[in-house]
Amino acid sequence: MTEIIETIQRDSLISFPFLGSWTINPPSYVTVFGRTIYLYGIVIAAAFLLAIIWMTKKCKSFGIREDDLYDTIIWTIPIGIIGARLYYVLFSLEYYIANPSKIIAIWEGGLAIYGGIIAGIIVIFFLCRHKKMRVAAMLDLVIVGVIIGQMIGRWGNFFNREAFGRETGIFCRMGLTSPDGSTIYVHPTFLYESLWNFALFIFLSIFLKKNKRKYNGQIMLIYLLVYGIGRTLIEGLRTDSLYIGNSGIRVSQLLSAILAVFAAVMLIYNARRVKNGTLKLEPAYIENLPDEGNEAESADAESTVDEDIPENGQETEAETADMKDHEKQAGDAEDK
User: Which residues span the domain enclosing 298?
Assistant: First the structure.
């Protein structure tokens, strides 16, 4: 598993020849109270934060309450990280059997996005079923948060000098100059994926703003299709891919292709269902569950109305007597 070490070059200078002859050497970590904190982790944390902010602002348009979203986040993030690590470890088992102490060393890198997504979907499924929420609606909301996390989080790979591709002479190549002065020019695949996800985020933002979402689960399928296509192409350029045993088949590339085909089939099938009226956007469950505060207000309003209006719509004796006196006085005035 020496390839794992070779594809992380934290001490290398970075250059992009098409931008000029300059080089940069951003730190891969900072030291706080004697402890090393990798910028990779800081970038990932910032990506999570921005994703949560976006989801919080948009959750009601997906029919999701903020409290339910926060419950989902609290469960999904830690289990998703565990899933991302397990996925990576399982497909690098030989190395981690020989180095068991490294299994929990996520600060050194080694998180697979598909492992996190799989774990997250499982958590969301059971949590939504328990809380009687629409699973597909929650997935639509959360997956946009995932896209935000991916497009920002990939820059953690930049600080680590990892997740790059094979050597190339392409115009947008990235140069890595090691301390011994040797330079290699590689595909900046982390940048490719970040830009691909950024384009997908812009597309989905416009898609949602124009109310093009026709059914719950549509956003998730679009993600699987578009991201799957991009990842299938980009993964083929990388030098740090996980493989199925000794087959030479890249795990993420195969999975991405399968998911893209599946999503394409489902989008076409569902488009026909939408057209013939057998599939539509289900009412948001938030509209069907009264808010506790609103319930209290409704109860107060009802009690107030009941107090103001006499039972059976009948007037009190005092009111009846007053009305008779007024009628008598009006009659006397007419006689005069």
Answer: 292-335
